[in-house]
């Protein structure tokens, strides 16, 4: 671990420089700037395709694992299963 002497004037200057750089960095990130950007008309269509593919993929995964999901929750909420755990 590096120990820095608190009384050293170069250490105070280094801390001041780091503080000013941090403040300027935060100001740069938070201040609005003009964005000269272009969205292609196909971008909305592409995002829509990604959304639909995600929904269909999720539905397909649910279909494949439905029996496991159903068994998990039926065991979790069954009264008989809870009694067996307490008696053991």
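-> sequence recovered:
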């Amino acid at each position: 671990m590096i120990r820095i002497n608190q009384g050293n004037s170069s250490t105070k200057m280094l801390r001041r420089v780091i503080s000013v750089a941090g403040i300027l960095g935060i100001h740069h990130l938070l201040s609005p700037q003009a964005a000269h950007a272009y969205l292609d008309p196909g971008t909305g269509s592409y995002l829509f395709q990604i959304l639909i593919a995600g929904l269909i993929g999720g539905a397909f995964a649910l279909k494949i694992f439905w029996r496991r999901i159903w068994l998990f929750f039926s065991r979790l909420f069954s009264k008989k299963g809870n009694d067996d755990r307490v008696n053991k």
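Residues 12 and 33 are 33 Å apart (CA to CA).
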